[in-house]
Write a structure and sequence with these properties.
This protein has 446 residues and is of the alpha/beta class. The protein has 14 helices and 21 strands. The protein has 2 domains: 107 residues, Roll (Urease, subunit C, domain 1), CATH 2.30.40; 309 residues, TIM Barrel (Alpha-Beta Barrel). Strands 3-2-7-18-19-20-21 form a 7-stranded mixed beta sheet, covered by helices on one side. A 5-stranded parallel beta sheet has the order 11-12-15-16-17. The protein has a 4-stranded mixed beta sheet with strand order 5-4-1-6, with no helix packed on it. Strand 4 and strand 5 form a beta hairpin.
Length: 446
């Protein structure tokens, strides 16, 4: 069934259209229940077993579907400014909405880096009118060079709540200690890309049997784990808060698990490619499978799945990293690392993880919203319960629908998806962003 629209000539009052999401099962932090959802003037107006269609309202059919708070991605590379040939805020947020995301956190490794108030304001202005909310992550250090702290208080005053030098871990323990101390005073969170450069060297894939067989320089698991251990020690010493980006190894998961058992304020994310692909996929030297941190062996994949299941890992984050075709067509050791992720993340979680849909939604919606301060508890409008008065940020998911990924049909400007041709289960049917349907029947409306 498609959507139905009010008769021609009928008007709907308010800031946006009046919507009825009909026939679905609402799933949020409070549990699940069969209910229709009425949205008016950008907010949830009613959640009831049966809602009569108001005059002129748009009806979004949700039979057999889950109606959930919009998904929130902690880790999106929108490339603008500086790499618009690979992605823009417009194309990236369109891909996000098709994947069910109503908010994304834009990483600061743009050109120039998001290390100043001017740069942050520029992205915020560019994001006005986008298909999803764009929360800007600020750089921890100037130019992400790891030498001087960025003006974090100025960026925090603009609403920045997450800071990271993503793509380059902060190498100096002393500088990271000062950054954590400063962040604690500001009430913001630091997110670390855990990679010790002295151990990672010029590695282009996981150091192991496959790197030896292919003759490609390898990056050992220890390069990640050493920095995870170091920063947990800093968190313990300072009583600070820390978020670990894209964990990929068994050792990292174990370290975070132990830190949480101590009661330390650490959170962690895993990317879909790290729980669905192994380093063996590099056998044909295809750069589409090059990513940082690199794909790991099956034992690490299994450890990530266990960490997602037992609560050690708090969020699934896409690490959506578009690259123009001419860059990904370079030889493996020269091609930039990264994969598309926004339109496939939910489906991969449903297809790969033996978890209830409610648990998957927690990992993709309200838990990441809390980590980056976009949830209602922190004054935001993302990931909250679907109740009257809540913001109209909602995704409608058909958990049993199957579809085949076609990289050429994705909304991103780039095509570097490692899942091209793969059949997945679970698909976003509708996405509503601040009361406006930006995706209807799996088609973008902007």
């Amino acid at each position: 069934m498609g959507h139905t629209v009010g008769d021609r000539g009928e008007s709907v009052t308010g800031a946006g259209p009046t919507l009825v999401i009909r026939g679905g099962t609402v799933v949020d932090q409070s549990g699940e229940r069969r209910a229709d959802v009425l949205i008016a003037e950008g907010r949830v107006a009613a959640v009831e077993s049966r809602i009569a269609r108001p005059r002129g309202a748009v009806v979004l059919e949700a039979d057999g579907c889950v109606v959930a708070p919009g998904l929130v991605d902690l880790h999106t590379h929108l490339r603008e400014p500086g790499r618009e040939e690979s992605e823009t805020i417009e194309t990236g947020t369109r891909a996000a909405s098709l994947g069910g995301f109503t908010a994304v956190v834009a990483m600061p490794n743009t050109e120039p880096a998001l290390d100043s108030a001017e740069a942050v304001r520029n992205v915020q202005e560019l994001a006005v009118g986008a298909s999803a909310h764009v929360a800007v992550a600020g750089a921890i250090t100037v130019g992400r060079a790891g030498e001087r702290l960025a003006p974090m208080s100025e960026l925090a005053a603009l609403g920045v709540r997450l800071f990271t030098d993503d793509g380059a871990g902060v190498q100096s323990a002393g500088l990271m200690r000062r950054a954590l101390d400063y962040a604690t005073g500001l009430g913001v969170t630091l997110a670390q890309h855990c990679e010790d450069r002295t151990l990672a060297g010029d590695g282009a894939m996981h150091e192991g049997a496959w790197s030896s067989r292919l003759g490609i320089p390898g990056m050992p698991a220890a390069a990640e784990e050493v920095m995870v251990a170091r920063d947990i020690a800093l968190v313990r010493a300072l009583g600070a808060r820390m978020h670990f980006l894209h964990l990929s190894t068994t050792g990292s998961v174990d370290l975070v698990r132990r830190a949480k058992s101590e009661g330390l304020a650490v959170t962690a994310e895993a990317a879909p490619h790290h729980f669905s692909l192994t380093d063996g996929r590099t056998a044909d030297y295809d750069p589409v499978f090059k990513v940082n941190p690199p794909l790991r062996p099956q034992a690490d994949v299994d450890a990530l799945k266990a960490g997602l299941a037992d609560g050690t890992i708090d969020a699934i984050a896409t690490d959506h990293a578009p690259h123009a075709p001419e860059l990904k067509d370079l030889p493996f050791d020269q091609a930039p690392p990264g994969m598309l992720g926004l339109q496939t993340a939910l489906s991969l979680a449903i297809s790969e993880l033996d978890l209830p849909v409610a648990r998957i939604l927690a990992l993709l919606s309200w838990q990441p919203a809390s980590i980056c301060g976009l949830d209602p508890v922190h004054g935001g409008d993302q990931g909250g319960a679907i109740v009257p008065g809540a913001a109209g940020n909602i995704c409608v998911i058909d958990p049993t629908a199957t579809w085949t990924v076609e990289a050429s049909m994705l909304a991103s400007r780039s095509r570097n998806s490692p899942y091209d041709g793969r059949k997945l289960t679970g698909r976003v049917r509708h996405t509503v962003f601040r009361g406006e349907p930006v995706v209807i029947d799996a088609e973008a409306q902007r």
